[in-house]
Specification:
By secondary structure, this protein is α+β, with helices and mostly antiparallel strands. Strands 2-1-5-11-12 form a 5-stranded mixed β-sheet. The radius of gyration is 36 Å and the shape is elongated. 49% of the residues are buried.
Length: 761
């Protein structure tokens, strides 16, 4: 049974409405006592106990800049990506159309320039309207601004559950506080400052906070260029962003727009002819949907993600991850990076053409750095960040480490086995010990037994190659990729032809401690855990430890830079919304090799492309016919990881093709890529053309001066020892050594010329 209504209190009667009005007035008595004389409140005069109570309320409001979008920019200032939790771009009042200022004041607060933060006339009018059954708001623009500032601060602090909304969870005490703060705000800021702040903070749509973002979202224009109909429509959206959304509810938006236009006309802000023309204008949006985050970067999502991880891992941006995220996604930062858009475009084209769409998900990556600065100019791979038809999608970055030196996540694959691209560092130690690259060593030696006396002044070298000791933990006899190279030859020829037995014959005369120091000095490390590569394990002479392409490119850049290693950097400057500078990355270089050693390596690596394993790369870059360039090919034992890493004087590049899945144990044998069948993939086949085409187009703009010649003592002829008659021969590729074994050996993929040979493992 329904409860009967007392006719005396029925709001449908005149007496009921009067009682309701008086009741509302009584409930808000404290509020009204403090606001009936705004001049007194503003001046601080107390007229009653209620006003004294009102004066005890807090009057301080910290007006921080509202959450703004962060921009990640390329080196030329073009946008790589926008990051935000609230899509907002702050603009000054003079960068807003006069129509939007007049429209908002007309519909939201017609007495804006007359009140002192709280409009008592408006409050009384709202109370009367409410008593009559017509809900009407009474918040001024200043009060709305206060409410938005408070809520924005709560959101930025991760307290979104405490946000107060008018008519939803806001009580009388909250309203009192809001009004007191509005009065205090009017004493601190001008009307223009308040209006500017309001228009920059107010919510229009989940993808548009502030008038600039709203103008771009709904009309693909700027706040400054809004027309009268557009401005009136956006001013109307503020009242209920979902109900008056011109995209989803154009009819509602039109009704509200016309109401705004009528208010502007009645208040003398526009003329009749303007009103008539604006009302006759159809509601027509031109939407530019914002794309938030690195995933939507049109040019370089993986480089963008790498930059983002560098910032999120930097304690200078906050004590913890949550604080850093607030700083980056709400702080309106401008992050200038090292990325060269032209180089990035060419790099992306190369990885896509090499293996852009392959159902078996083989990976291709290409990254470059500048010798002398460490600046990363490009970082590309053959995948899409978001799922796409016919695409290999992944969010792992093939070019970088899995973790940084402090153990923080970098979202990287962690690299792959570098194979023979590790050989130049043993060669560098050979030169560092004052030995000539034209010294002949015995490449017929294949047995390095468990008791072999390696020299190591700072540790113990482990691992053995000796078929006779397999049962004791040794690997089978050391093998080259092809027959015909188990013989004495110069260390130089052994490097440019990539002969495993020559690398080992060289190492047998060296101090492994020296090799370790060189590897550490040029920044080489394990891509999975960022720990040093242990060169006391003999298998690491031939590249058995997973290493990232960015690491390899930076190491080879040391040769180009006359022996000075420069750590790779991606961020050149960061500024906040006020223009203040925040910590970025600076060039950080150190002496790693003697200049004459670096020059000797460059001399040898040019020969790789002239007459060694790299001469098979097509299209070919010859140091004799094009410009001076040095490089080394590399292939893992099972062909699952293939490389070309090289440099000019101005640019160092690592190109990689291989297995990026799981433990990376798939063999790169008997596979088809881009319609071509490969019995076994070598470095020169897919990674090689990626490297050569990229360098041919981009390297000249970074400098291709001739490399300085090494001193004569490193080029001197030397005695040739006799061949080892006990050396065995085998057509198979190199098997793994003990300690960190590499994958199993494949069969040769195709016949190769006698000299130069096909890539040696």
């Amino acid at each position: 049974m329904a409860t009967g209504k007392n006719p005396l209190f029925d709001t449908a009667t005149t007496l009921g409405k009067l009682i309701l009005f008086l009741g509302v007035s009584a409930i808000c008595g404290v509020l009204m006592a403090g606001l009936l004389v705004p001049a007194a409140a503003v001046s601080g005069n107390a007229a009653s106990g209620s006003i004294k109570f009102f004066e005890t309320l807090p009057a301080e409001l910290k007006v921080d800049p509202p959450s703004q979008s962060t921009k990640i920019l390329a080196s030329d200032g073009s946008t790589i990506a926008n990051l935000y939790l609230e899509n907002r771009t702050r603009v000054s009042l003079d960068q807003m159309s006069p129509y939007i200022k007049d429209a908002v004041i007309a519909i939201e607060d017609s007495r804006f320039y007359e009140h002192g933060g709280v409009d008592t006339t408006g409050i009384l009018r709202a109370l009367v309207a409410t008593a009559r059954g017509n809900k009407q708001g009474a918040s001024t623009i200043t009060q709305q601004y206060v409410n938005n500032v408070i809520n924005s601060s709560l959101e930025s602090e991760g307290k979104g559950d405490q946000v107060l909304l008018n008519g939803v969870n806001k009580g009388v005490g909250d309203k009192l506080r809001e009004m007191k703060l509005a009065i205090a705000l009017e004493k601190k800021f001008t009307k223009e400052q308040i209006l500017e702040g309001y228009l920059n903070i107010v919510f229009f749509n989940r993808d548009a906070y502030g008038i600039e973002a709203a103008a771009r979202l709904f009309f693909s224009t700027s706040a400054k260029n809004l027309t009268l109909p557009q401005a009136a429509l956006l001013a109307g959206v503020v009242n209920s962003p979902s109900f008056y959304d011109p995209i989803t509810n154009p009819d509602n938006a039109k009704v509200r727009r016309n109401l705004v236009l009528k208010a502007m006309l009645s208040q003398g802000k526009i003329k009749q002819a303007q009103y008539d023309a604006a009302v006759a204008t159809p509601v027509k949006t031109k939407v530019t949907q914002p794309r938030q985050g690195c995933a939507y970067s049109p040019t370089s999502p993986y480089f963008c993600d790498y930059v983002l991880h560098l910032l999120l891992n930097n304690p200078a941006y906050g004590a913890d991850t949550k604080e850093r995220e607030r700083k980056i996604f709400r702080g309106g930062l401008t992050i200038k990076t090292t990325l060269d858009p032209k180089a990035q475009k060419v790099a992306q084209a190369q990885v896509d053409s090499a293996a852009g769409a392959n159902p078996n998900k083989w990976g291709a990556a290409l990254v470059s750095v500048e010798p002398g600065t460490g600046k990363i100019t490009n970082m590309a791979q053959n995948t899409s960040w978001l799922p796409a038809k016919g695409k290999f999608d992944t969010q792992l970055n093939f070019n970088v480490d899995k973790r940084d030196e402090k153990g923080n996540d970098l979202n990287g694959l962690g690299g792959a086995q570098p194979g023979s691209t590790m050989k130049p560092f043993t060669f560098a130690e050979w030169l560092d010990e004052g030995k000539s690259m034209n010294t002949v060593v015995d490449g017929s030696v294949r047995k390095y037994p468990l008791n072999f006396q390696w020299k190591n002044s700072c540790g113990v070298t482990t691992g053995a190659y000796n078929t006779d000791e397999e049962g004791l933990g040794a690997a089978p006899d050391l093998q080259n990729a092809e027959e015909g190279y188990y013989r004495p030859m110069t260390v130089l020829k052994g490097l440019y032809n990539s002969i495993n037995t020559i690398t080992f014959a060289s190492a047998a005369q060296l101090d492994f401690c020296g090799i370790q120091k060189i590897v550490d000095a040029v920044g080489l490390h394990n891509g999975l855990d960022n720990q040093p590569i242990n060169m006391s394990i003999v298998a690491n002479l031939l590249g058995s430890t997973q290493t990232a392409p960015l690491t390899m490119a930076s190491a080879f850049a040391t040769f180009a830079n006359d022996g000075r290693y420069c750590a790779p950097i991606a961020i050149t400057s960061v500024t906040d919304a006020t223009g203040a500078k925040l910590p970025a990355q600076a060039t950080n270089c150190r002496d790693a090799l003697k200049p004459e050693v670096a020059r000797g390596v460059n001399h040898a690596l040019q020969e790789v492309l002239n007459r060694g394993s790299g001469s098979l790369i097509q299209p070919r870059i010859s140091t004799q016919t094009d410009f001076p360039i040095a490089a080394k090919t590399g292939t893992s034992n099972n062909n699952g990881s293939t490389w070309v890493v090289g440099h000019t004087t101005g640019l160092a590049t690592a190109a990689w093709f291989g297995d990026p899945l799981g433990s990376q144990k798939r063999a790169g044998q008997n596979i088809t890529i881009n319609g071509q069948f490969y019995q076994g993939i070598d470095g020169y086949m897919i990674a090689g053309p990626m490297f050569s085409k990229f360098m041919a187009e981009i390297a000249p703009s970074h400098g291709t001066e001739p490399f300085p010649e090494p001193p004569s003592n490193l080029l001197a002829e030397a005695y040739q020892p006799p061949a080892n008659n006990n050396a065995g021969k085998n057509n198979n590729f190199m098997p793994p050594a003990t300690q960190n074994p590499a994958p199993s050996s494949p069969a040769p993929s195709a016949p190769a010329p006698k000299d130069p040979p096909k890539e040696k493992k």
